[in-house]
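Weekly structure sync, notes
Attendees: PL (lead), two postdocs, one rotation student
Agenda item 3: pending single-chain targets
PL asked that the sequence for the first pending target be pasted directly into the notes so everyone works from the same version. It is reproduced below exactly as submitted, 419 residues in total.
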Amino acid sequence: MSQSDALALLALTLGAFLMPLLAERIGWFSAPCEMIYGIVVANLLPQLRFNGQFISTLSEFGFLLLLFLAGLEIDFDMLRRQGARALLTSALAALGIQAGGLWLTLLLHLPVIYALLIGAISVTVLMAILHESGMLHHPLGQRLLIIGALGEFLSIIAVTAYDLIYSYGLDWQLAIAAGKLIALLILGYVGLRGLIAVANTRSRTVRRLFALRDTSELGVRAALALMLCFAAAALILRVEAILATFIAGAISSFAFRGRNLVTEKLTTMGQGFFLPIFFITVGTQVRLLDLLSPSALSLLIAVTVGLIGVRLAAIPLLRLAGVQLRQALTAALMLSAPLSLMVAIAQVGVRLGALNSATASAALGASIVSATLFPLLARPFLLHEARAGRPITIGSTQPLPQPVEFPAAERFEPDEATA
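Predicted structure, written out during the meeting:
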C-alpha cells in the first residue's frame, strides 16, 4: 500500500466515524452525508488515491453486503399476510413507476439506462427512514415495504436484463446468457430448499448459528460464505453480482424467518464500517468540474425531477395498492430515494460504456440529491402519521404457521468434544 493509499484510507475511516455524528446533529440520514463527504474530500484533495486496489476491494465488499442485507430485510411473513391481491396491486404500482421511467426517458430522448435510473425502486434507504421515524409497523410503512421489496427485485431483474442485452445483443449469445441467469435462479432454489432442510433439523450446529454468543461466530461465517458463494457463482456465469447477492439474502430471510442475531451482527458490521466506506467511495467518483458543464447539470436536474415526477404520476396506482389519499404524497416522496440501486446502475453503466465520466457523475449526483432532499421533505408527514395512527399490522387475523425459532440466549463455548 502506497502512502497515497494509506492517506486515502485514513480519510475514509475518519469520514465513516464523523458523518453519523454530523447527520444526527443536522437531522439528515447517514448515507447521503457520507456520499457528500466523499465528494468534498475527493475534489479538495485530488492527489489522494481513492481508487486503489485495497479501497476498491473494501468498497465492492460493502456493496455486496448492502445488497445481501437488502434481501435479508424482506419480511416474507408480512408478504404472506397481505394476500395475493395486495401483492398483485403492489407489483402493479412498482411496474407502473418503472414504466413511467421508460416513458419519460423516451420522451426526453435519453439513453435507455436512464429509464433504469428514474424507475429504480430500493428498500434500503426506505427501511432506514421507516425505522428512524417509528413507522415500520404502521399500515403505511408496511405497504411501502411491500412495494419497495417487489420494486427492488423487479429493478434488479431489469438491470440484469439490460446488462445481458447490451453485452450480447438479440442473438444466440443472449439465449446462452439467459440460460446462465436461469441456472443462477435454479441454484438459488436449491440453496433455499437446502437451507429449509437444515433449519428444520434443529440440531446443535443449527442452533449454534443463532446463538447469542458463539466464540467462533459460526452464524456470521455461514451468512458471509453464502453471500460470497452466490457472488462467485454470478462471476463464473457472467451474471450481474447484485442479483446473486440479493437472491442469497432473500433465500436466507425466507428459510430462517424473523429477525435473528445473525442479521443484527451483519447489519452492525456493515453499518459500522463497510457500508460507510462504500458510500464515501461512491462520492469520491463524482467530479464537481464535470457537473459544472450545462449538459451534466441539466441531466442531474432532469433525473432528479424525473424521479419524483414519475412517482407523483403513479399516485393512482399507489392508491390501488392500498395507500390512502392523504398519504399518497408521503409515499411518492419515500419511494423517490432509490440510492443503492442508482449507485449500482451507474456502476453498471460505466462498466458497459453506456455512461461516461460526466454522465456517471450526474447520475450519482442525482442519487445523492434525491436521497437527501425527498426523505427530508417526507419526514414531517411521517412523524405526523406516526403520532396520529396506532402502529398495527395489516392483513389476515388468522394465525400463520410459526417460523423456525431458535433459543436466542443460548450460549456456545468450545468444549473438549467440539474443540
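Discussion points:
- Residues 390-419 have pLDDT under 50 and may be disordered.
- The chain has one domain: 3-390.
Action: rotation student to compare against the earlier draft before next sync.
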